[in-house]
Amino acid sequence: NSKDLGKDRWTCFTGDLKESSDQEATLELDLRRAIRSDEFFLVYQPQVNLRTQEVTGIEALVRWQHPTRGVLSPGVFLPVIEKTNLAAPLGQMVIDKAVKAASELEKMNVDFCRMAVNLSPSHLKSGLLMNDFIDAMTRHGVTPDKLKAEVLESVFLDETSNHNALLLQELHDLGLHIELDDFGTGFASLTHVADLPINGLKIDRSFTAKLLTDQKKEIVINHLIHLARSLDINVVCEGVETDAQFDRLRMMGNFSVQGYLIARPMTFDHLTDWLASVQGDIAFNGV
Ligand code: C2E
Ligand code: MG
Ligand code: MG
Ligand code: MG
């Protein structure tokens, strides 16, 4: 009867909850170990201007080379990272590797514009972020004009938003570019954008995915492109997967795109091969 069913469901429910918090605790221990033993690496995805095909940026994305589970995506472990005190150590590592990659590309004379690093909200809160950038730039001899930082619009909206905005302003003053990631999925209003220390908007891939089937998405993208142009900020449209999407976007303006159609996120070696193939006329030392 229904009473028994309810009881079963309850048992089952508490069982699952316990299991998931156990799993989370295990994952946290595993992550601590992984940070100590340097199991994280970055993959790189290019952003290109859809008119000129120039590379206008490269986004660094973190991966975990797990000893038994294979390569894990950030979706699996970032939620736990954000809840613990691991965001700053992981973030520091990501910044160091991304800046090092930028330095290597510069040595190869590759014109990649800026290397983009995703900033973790907890790392922002930690107060260590600025120093981590300065340390990495000093260590690898990279100037801020080769770097940009991607932040979620939520960092400007929660209770630490004032602190975050000041910190991002400092990074911006130093010469880094700041871009709003996944734009359109949060609650940042368009008027808000004008007051923030940002150089660019990344239009979330949920808009791109429905560009050809949902006219409202097309209207929003159009609007964002025009807004960005009038505020003199850059646009990157995320998640471009098909020629049809590319062609439609190309009709809408002059901006950058990123997605599987252009290139999937790649290891550093694949990235340099890819860059050599699209920038064949640029001098490559030793590639
Ligand atoms: P994001 O910054 O919005 O990055 C874009 C995500 O979309 C990446 O997933 C990328 O692999 C994926 N993607 C790129 N092109 C396409 C496409 O054409 N179609 C589809 N379906 N997906 C595409 P990934 O690497 O799994 O990263 C997920 C999220 O994790 C990122 O979203 C970012 O918020 C976060 N993240 C990644 N790396 C880092 C990092 O180093 N630090 C921090 N704090 N967060 C990171
Ligand atoms: Mg990003
Ligand atoms: Mg994004
Ligand atoms: Mg995202």
Automatic annotation (TrEMBL):
Residues 24-279 form the EAL domain. It comes from the Bacteria. This is EAL domain-containing protein. It comes from Roseibium limicola. The lineage of its organism: Bacteria, Pseudomonadati, Pseudomonadota, Alphaproteobacteria, Hyphomicrobiales. The chain holds residues 757 to 1043 of 1043 of the full protein.
